[in-house]
Every structure is written in C-alpha cells, then in structure tokens.
From TrEMBL:
Belongs to the FKBP-type PPIase family. Tig subfamily. Residues 441-480 are annotated as: Disordered. This is Trigger factor. Gene3D superfamilies: 3.10.50.40, Trigger factor ribosome-binding domain (3.30.70.1050), Trigger factor, C-terminal domain (1.10.3120.10). Residues 443-452 have a biased composition (Acidic residues). Its EC number is 5.2.1.8.
Length: 480
C-alpha cells in the first residue's frame, strides 16, 4: 500500500492510496484460503472446497471485503502516521473509469483511490488568570412563594352553578355539549357532551370562547370558527366549521382558599410544608438560572480568548440546523424577514456567526476537557438516560433500548454531561464573585439566556427562536 499526501490546505487534507495488483491478489488469496476452512458446499467435504471454485462463486464479494478492509487500513494509517484528529469520517473517492475498477476487482490492475479529510485545528489552551466573573444569586422572597400558592389555589379552585338566569363572563366555567359540522356534515372529534370550558382560558380554538360570552344555562348558540392552518388534525386545518352548542350549566369560581386542605390536595401534610416545598423548588430554579448566567459569562470570556480556523463542514452543518429552525419558526409565526426589520441575507450572515461561535466554543471545551482528563462515569450516563426515559411515560423501555442500541444517540446523552463538567473545571480556574440581585434581575434578558450559552445574541427578535438545544459542537468534538 502506497500512501501519498496530495493536498494540505487549511484544515483540508487529501491522500492518494494505491494498492497494486499483486497486493490485491495476495489479499484476495488469503481471504479465500480463510474461507476455504469455513465453507460448506454440497459435494465437497468441509475444508476441501477448491480455492478456484470459491473464487468463481464468491470472488467478487470477497474482493469487495478486501477493498473495504484496505480502505479502513489506509484511513487508520493516514491518521496515525500524521497525528491527525478528524472532524468527520474520511470521504473516499474511487476512480470513475469502470474498466479500471473492474481490473482491480479481478486483481489484474492497481486500485488507486483518494481519501479526503477534514481535520480539527490545533488549539493552544489560553490563560484564564485575568478572567473575573460575576455570578448573580437571589434569595427567594415571600412574595414569590405567595404568588405560587395563589396559582396553585387557582388551578385547584372549585366552581358552583350560578343559576339559570346568570350570564357567563370571563373567568366562569361552562359545561357544554356540542356538535360540529364541516359544510353541514358532522366530522370525527367534533362532538362532545358535558365538556368543561373556562372562558378566557384560550383552551379552545380561536374565536370559540368569545362567542359564548353572556350565555345562560340552557341556551343554545351556533359558533362559527376557522381551524388554524397549523392545527394538529390535518384534515381540519384551515377549514371553516360550525358548532351547535348547548350550555348545560354556567358556573362561577368559588373563593380561593389557601389552607391545610389545599396543601393536602397537593400531597402535603400542611400549609407550612407546602410553603417549604415551594420555597425549595423556587430556590432550585434560582440556582439553575444563576448557573446559566455565569456559564454564559464564562463562554463569552472564552470566545474572546480564541481565534482559529474552523472546520468548514462542521460550521455548515451547525448553520443548517440553526437555519432550519429559523425557517420553521417564521413559517409557523407567518412572518417574513421584512416583518423583523431585516433581510434574508442579513439574517443568514447573523446566524452563520452564531453557528461559528457554537463550533468554536464546542471545540475549545472539548480540547480543555481532554487536557484536563474529564471523565464521565457509566453511572452518570445511566442516570441521565433514566431521566430522558422518564420524559416519555409509558415508553420508557423503548426509549432505553433505543439509546442502548444507538451509540450516536447515546453520545447525545453524554455530551451535555461532559460540557457541564468542563464548565465546572473552568469555573474553578477563574475568579467568580457572587452578587446578590433581585428575582427580576436574575431573570433579566431571559430570552437570550434560554439559548445555548455558546450562542451569540442575535439582534433581531426572530433570532431568539433558533436557540433550543445545547451546543452541538461539543458532541462531535468530545468524540474526536
């Protein structure tokens, strides 16, 4: 096997690999000899099938395996001999000349192919001794606990009939029965009896509740609505419908009671224990938000410390993921770039910067984690996988088996754990000062903080919608 580097441009490398006909024949003969000891063919004793006969029967398929093994061997040799870290799996290009391929498959001619690589850049770890971060922390105010209690009490409040003459208003609950039709014909899912509807809740399709304002018990009304274009039942999406509605009862909300009985309704022994539980939960939320804030500040500081060439394909893949989400969100919102005060070209340029930032910081975190020898235990992965499975009630077993059988999917479970451990490592190296702030200050700029911390903050409002998952770059970088 002869390997020659033919291109070294930035992070791109290409090598030409040549397997001469003699080498191909030797490899083929060795494989057929190995097959001879295993083959079971009618008319021949085990291990006694002539090699020439095996060549006629299986020669081409065996040679295909020979070539694949040679490709794998070449890839490993190129990476090892040149000390490369790959950004992606090598791309193999075989000759386009069919006669050349056929000759190689018969071991009568040389086989030359090209291995194209994209490598990770070499990253020198920056000095962080001059980095100082402010970590906002907030105490849980009594008002926050009281507000949570009010919401819980409201969600658990009871309703009582207002009588036959009372008119329904926002905040009241209706018990209704209805029959829906499309062009005069009933449709599946369009009929209901004794269905509760809280006026003002927005739980029914747009326009439905408003037409029932002021109804009385026993009253009948025809409600005319149009299903949203993105309605989940595609056979109803965008269609006009009529509902013949009968109001079975008009009920008004009873006074909200915040007492021990409310606590028991939520599985707690007393109101005090419920308040304690609420305070602890809000406290955990505050801690998580504080963590997000200081992590974002840390990654902002890292972003200013590193400048290096990025693997083009990594950037393109990240940009494609972000841009796809942008297009989906704008389509669902029925907005254009003009509505957001920008153009598609400007938006693309802005999101490409976000993609580049994600890739850059993902690679930096991966390199820092590797040099710091950050490890993820099997128990940590298992715990994270259990949490993921719990997100799909009734399908826990299927989710568990899916991840166990798919290494790439399991890597998506490992990546956030790895990233958080690297962040912990870095926070231990920089100066972090706690600063007590209000709840409002802690959650200020919440839209941008919901995003992956590695993202730059887009200028346009629509940009917020592309920010959904943790930086994907660290997934690839950790495995590189």
């Amino acid at each position: 096997m002869n390997v020659t580097e033919t291109l070294s441009q930035g992070l791109k490398r290409e090598f030409q690999v040549v397997l001469n006909a003699t080498d191909l024949k030797t490899r083929l003969d060795d494989s057929l000899q190995d097959l001879q000891g295993k083959a079971k063919i009618n008319g021949f004793r085990p291990g006694k099938v002539p090699v020439a006969h095996l060549r006629r029967l299986y020669g081409r398929s065996v040679m295909a395996d020979v070539v694949q093994n040679a490709v794998n061997e070449a890839n490993q040799k190129i990476v090892a001999d040149n000390g490369l870290k790959l950004a992606f799996e090598p791309q193999i290009r075989f000759p386009e000349n069919k006669d050349e391929i056929e000759a190689a498959m018969e071991a009568k001619g040389d086989l030359a192919f090209t291995v194209a690589l994209e490598v990770l850049p070499k990253i020198e770890i920056a000095d962080l001794s001059d980095v100082s971060l402010v970590k906002p922390v907030a105490e849980v105010p009594d008002s926050e606990v009281d507000a949570a209690l009010e919401r819980m009490a409201s969600s658990n409040r009871t309703f009582a009939s207002k009588g036959e003459k009372a008119k329904a208003a926002t905040g009241d609950r209706l018990l209704i029965s209805f029959v829906g039709t499309l062009e005069g014909q009933p449709f599946d899912g369009g009929t209901g009896e004794g269905i509760p509807l809280d006026l003002g809740s927005g739980q029914f399709i747009p326009g439905f509740e408003e037409q029932l304002e002021g109804v009385k018990t026993g009253e009948k009304r025809t409600v005319k609505v149009t299903f949203p274009e993105n309605y989940t039942a595609t056979h109803l999406a965008g269609k006009a419908a009529e509902f013949e509605v009968t109001v079975d009862d008009v009920q008004g909300p009873e006074a909200v009671k915040i007492d021990d009985e409310l606590a028991k309704a939520f599985g707690m022994e007393s109101l005090d224990s419920l308040k304690t539980a609420i305070r602890e939960q809000i406290g955990r939320d505050f801690v998580a938000q504080s963590r997000r804030k200081v992590k974002k500040s840390l990654l902002d500081a890292l972003d200013g410390k590193y400048t290096f060439e990025l693997p083009p394909t990594l950037v393109e893949q990240e940009f494609a993921s972000v841009w796809s989400q942008v297009e989906t969100d704008m389509k669902e919102a029925k907005k254009s770039f003009a509505d957001e005060g920008t153009t598609e070209d400007e938006a693309r340029a802005e999101y490409r910067k976000i993609a580049e930032r994600r890739v850059r910081l993902g690679l930096v975190l991966a390199e820092i984690g590797e040099q710091a020898k950050v490890q993820i235990s099997d128990d940590e992965v298992t715990q994270a996988l259990v949490e993921r499975a719990r997100q799909f009630p009734g399908q826990e077993k299927q989710v568990w088996e899916f991840y166990q059988k798919n290494p790439q999917a399991l890597a998506e479970i490992r990546a956030p754990i790895f990233e958080e451990k690297v962040v912990d490592h870095l926070l231990g190296q920089v100066k972090v000062e706690d600063q007590t702030v209000s709840r409002e200050a802690l959650y200020a700029d919440e839209d941008s903080d919901e995003a992956p911390a590695a993202e730059a903050k887009p200028k346009k409002a629509a940009a917020k919608k592309a920010k959904k998952a943790e930086p994907k770059d660290s997934d690839a970088a950790e495995d590189a």
